[in-house]
Amino acid sequence: DLATHGEVEYIVRPEKLEFTTPETAMLAGRVEARVFLGNHWLYQVQTPLGLVQISQSNRGAPSSAEGDTVSLRWAAEHAHVVPRAG
């Protein structure tokens, strides 16, 4: 069990985030940028927590466009809480 005091960083790797429906969302936001990187898409989503990056395997057409409102989720085991450096 991690006992943390003070400010922390809540870290989830971009490839562990996924687009979902509003009913199962843990976080919502707006796609600010979408970049094609060959074998995957990189999305930057502005959320109430700040800018979040999502990496999604290239399955053909992208799942979201710039300006879209999206819903995000991740598995609890993929989140890491660490003390904020500084």
Structure, described:
With 86 residues, this protein is an all-beta fold. It has no helices and seven strands. The chain has strands spanning 8-12, 18-20, 27-36, 40-47, 50-57, 69-73, 79-83. The strands form two sheets. Strands 2-6-3-4-5 form a five-stranded antiparallel sheet, with no helix packed on it. A two-stranded antiparallel ribbon has the order 1-7.
List keywords for this structure.
86 residues, mainly beta, two-stranded antiparallel sheet
Topology:
Blueprint: E1 8-12, E2 18-20, E3 27-36, E4 40-47, E5 50-57, E6 69-73, E7 79-83
Antiparallel strand pairs: 1-7, 2-6, 3-4, 3-6, 4-5
How many individual helices?
0
Mean pLDDT: 90
Q: Could you spell the SSE succession in H and E letters?
A: EEEEEEE
Q: Tell me the strand order in the biggest sheet.
A: 2-6-3-4-5
Characterize the main sheet.
Answer: 5 strands, antiparallel
Q: Please state roughly what percent of the residues sit in beta strands, choosing from under 5%, 5-15%, 15-25%, 25-35%, 35-45% or over 45%.
A: over 45%
Helicity level: under 10%
Given helix and strand content, the structural type is mainly beta
Describe, in short, the structure shown:
The protein is mainly β. The chain has strands at residues 8-12, 18-20, 27-36, 40-47, 50-57, 69-73, 79-83.
